[in-house]
Description:
This protein is of the alpha+beta class.
Amino acid sequence: MGEFTGRIRIDRPAAEVFAFLSDPTAMPRYLQTVNRVEQRGPGRIAMEGEAHGHAYHDEGWIKLEPEARRMRWGSDRMKDYGGEMEVQEADGGAEVSIRLSITPDPAVAKQMEQESGAVDHAMRLAMERTLGAIKAACEGVDAAPDAPRSADDLPDSRPFGSSATLNPDI
């Protein structure tokens, strides 16, 4: 099982960043492979998306720890997959840390090696993309303006949308 970590500084208050990240339906805004997330009851979610050219549907668990600004998750289908995201105060803004544990399916690992040279390198790139997309969504800007992206890939113009705050003007 591979362990991957990353962190990024965000120029928004930590409470607002956690409010955004702790809403599972916001995941498609920062997880490139996720198209849709649906809550299936307390602590349960279902996700649909496409990864490495294959559509997927997965269900799993999610645990929010608002007092620690921490979120943990795992998959029902992939028993060796799980992660944790934590948001901390940092110099007038926030720092988001992610820890991911995963062993890719052998066919996916082979494709990752072909595309990126090594599974670890592919996972580091994916982590960087995810952290950049979180920053872009929270700050309301494109994380990599020179990267080729379609209009559908850009973050919403409002950094948190209506799900993270009751103030629609944010």
